[in-house]
Each structure stands twice: as structure tokens, then as C-alpha cells.
Amino acid sequence: MASAGVAASLGVGTPSLGLPVIELDGVRKVYGNGQLEVEALKGITLSIAQGEYVAIMGPSGSGKSTLMHILGCLDVPTAGSYHLAGEDVSTMDEIDLAEARNRRIGFVFQQFNLLPSMTALRNVELPLSYAAMSRDKRRLLAQEALDRVGLGDRMNHKPGEMSGGQQQRVAVARALASNPALLLADEPTGNLDSTATDDVLALFHELHQQGRTVVLITHEADVAARAARVIRIRDGLVASDEVAAEVAR
């Protein structure tokens, strides 16, 4: 297994890595009980440092989706521990998990989940309304996030007036606006053509180069190849964990 330290030594374009953002130790997830028990995760141990760009791959039924739900604080392990940015989230209740998600994680999904009646600016600003901050500050953070993803000139456009790639960039801006510890992207290119896919993956690479921690869930090998580290999940376990010798761009 290649560690985060190996990534730096191989010179794969990874910025200086910081403390772990993700630490899983012996994480198991069991659904059901008795004869109907299904062990989706069988003891996952891994660490992802601040500033890493990691792709997590796995076939259907591998436990990849279950792992994503745990990483995203959408579920908790049956056993083992999960620390997110130093905070133990593995035993939290629903209320505390929701609060941790809002503070620590920016989500990007295959479905852009943008409100069609709102402009890009309002779509990015909306999640910030749940935080205790002024309207002016929310607007400023949303504008800065859209500028960061190259859509400063499209702030007042609605989703229907944008391409798929631009809509996904708005979704990335929405995820970045709260300055989360982790950017977690679940099949973010699944609804995009090849040109838009290249555009969005170039954006993830740029964010990684700026020191952002990016974890990308995908079943596509060519998408995973753009990350600096690829973790493959099979049968509820880590089958391989490799640092790219040369990252595709």
C-alpha cells in the first residue's frame, strides 16, 4: 500500500500534504441482522491527508457506495472509528452528523441538484443561508466561489441557460463556498460528455494544486487516472491503494 508520504516522494504533482482529513480504522458496516445480515464493509483502514486528490473505485456490490456514505457522514460504521478533520464522527447521531456535514464536507453529485428557478449565484448562496452569517457575507462567498471555478461572468444565469459542464462547475462552487475540509464528489462526470468531463476534471486538478482535499468516487478508470492516488474497493475491503507514477491530465 502506498502512503501519502510516498506520493510526495514520487513527485506526482501533489502539494505539501498536511494532517489527515480522513482516518478510518477497522471500519465495518453491517446491514440487517441474523440470517439476513450483509457485511458491506469488512474492516477498512485508510488515511487521506489534507491536500490529497484521491479516487475511490469499485465494481457494483464492492462496498464503494457504503464507504462513500460513511465518508460523507451520511451513515455511521457498525464497528471501527472514523475521524474527519480530527473529529470523531463514527458514533454521532443524526443531528450531529448533519452539523458535521455542513461544517466539514462539500458535496458534488452526478445529478447537479441545482434549483432551475434560481441563478447560479443564488444556487451557490442558498446552502450558506443555514449558517449564521449576514446576507452580504453569503453573497460575497458565493461570488468568490463562482469566480474560483471560472464562472464569474455567468453568476446571473439560470441552470437551463448553461451547459452540463457549467452546471457542474456551479455545483462545485456551491460545495466550495463554505470552505470545507473535504470536497467529496460522487460520480461527478456521470452525466457529462467527454468535453465537459475534461473540463470538470481539470477543475478538480486545479483545486488539488491549490491545496484542496478532493475525494472522487467513480467506476470509470479514465476518470480515476486523473487523481494522484487510486484506492480500489472489492468485497468490502481495500484491494489496492496506489499512488500514480504519472498523473494523466
Explain how this protein is built.
The structure is a single chain. By secondary structure, the protein is an alpha/beta fold. It has a single domain (49-75, 93-243), classed as 3-Layer(aba) Sandwich (Rossmann fold), CATH 3.40.50. Helices cover 32% and strands 26% of the residues. It contains 8 helices and 10 strands. The chain has a 6-stranded mixed sheet, sandwiched between helices. The chain has a 4-stranded antiparallel sheet with strand order 2-1-4-5, with helices on one face. A hairpin with a 2-residue loop joins strand 9 (229-234) and strand 10. Helix 5 (135-148) packs across helix 6 (164-176) and helix 6 (164-176) runs parallel beside helix 7 (194-209). It is globular and about 55 Å long. The chain starts with a helix and ends in a 6-residue tail after the last strand. Mean pLDDT is 89; it is low at 1-14.
CATH 2nd-level architecture: 3-Layer(aba) Sandwich
Shape: globular
N-to-C order of helices and strands: HEEEHEEHEHHHEHEHEE
State the end-to-end CA separation: 24 Å
Strand order of the largest sheet: 6-7-8-3-9-10
Query: What helical percentage do the residues reach?
Result: 25-40%
How many helix segments? 8
What is the count of structural domains? 1
Strand content: 25-35%
Output the CATH topology.
Rossmann fold
User: How big is the Rg?
Assistant: 18 Å
How many strand elements?
10
Largest sheet composition: 6 strands, mixed
Which structural class matches the secondary elements? alpha/beta
- Contiguous low-pLDDT stretches (5 residues minimum) are 1-14
